[in-house]
Amino acid sequence: MKALILDDNASFRVLLSSVCRSYDINTDETKNIKEATDLALTNKYDIYFVDGDLSDGSGVDFCLWLKKKNIVEHVIFISTQFKSLEEFENLKDIVGVDLVINKPIKTIEMKQICEHLIGKSNNVSIDNEEDYMVDLREKYVKSIKTKLVKLNDLIKKTISTQDEETIKTLIDEIHKISGSAGTYGFEFASDFCHQMEFVVKDMCQTNNVNEEILHDFMRQLKNVFQLNSY
């Protein structure tokens, strides 16, 4: 079997592809809709993992394109937004997805999804989720400093320029941490960023950048990662 992973969060792509490989599911990965479209036209995939909120557009649009092209393989929709049964039914009927899963996602949940799709259990035992996650979590921990530096630079630029594109880039980075941190065990950081994402979106919509809130967010996020890490 082969899967295409469309997600703009590199940390999440690493984790999802690792779980898929343990089920002998080969993967191609991309972070943007254009490349995903090209890959779908030139390759045969049994499964599509599609992030709902991408830097270059909506995963819903890509799913609708798959449906229009009559590419009717399994489509797993990944989102931080769609949570209700009614929303899932609309996505299933209108967009043509099989499952909607909400970030942050635990490894055991991804295991269950893979086993559901291929109809059998994994030959490679991942009975202890914590053992399986050790290496991946260590890599994520090492990447936290880089993520925080990038976020801090964006906050400084946002305060300095108050440019709409910069604010949108900041929102994207907060969204990525919100979606991936909890998967690697940083639930507090994930929840905190999820709440802050709406605050910064409101700043963008009202054209009112609050310097104090942004600095306080950065200070608290550093604390949250440290207290939830080691």
List keywords for this structure.
230 residues, Rossmann fold, alpha/beta, 2 domains, 5-stranded parallel beta sheet, 62% helix, Four Helix Bundle (Hemerythrin (Met), subunit A), two-stranded antiparallel sheet, 9 helices
Chain-averaged pLDDT: 84
Shape: globular
State the secondary-structure class. Answer: alpha/beta
Largest sheet: 5 strands, parallel
CATH homologous superfamily of the largest domain, by name?
Response regulator
* CATH top level assignment of the largest domain: Alpha Beta
Order of strands, main sheet, comes to 2-1-3-6-7
Termini, distance in Å? 37 Å
Reported by name, the CATH topology of the largest domain is: Rossmann fold
Strand/helix succession: EHEHEEEHEHEHHHHH
Work out the oligomeric state of the chains in this entry: single chain
- What is the number of E strands? 7
Looking at the overall shape, the CATH architecture of the largest domain is: 3-Layer(aba) Sandwich
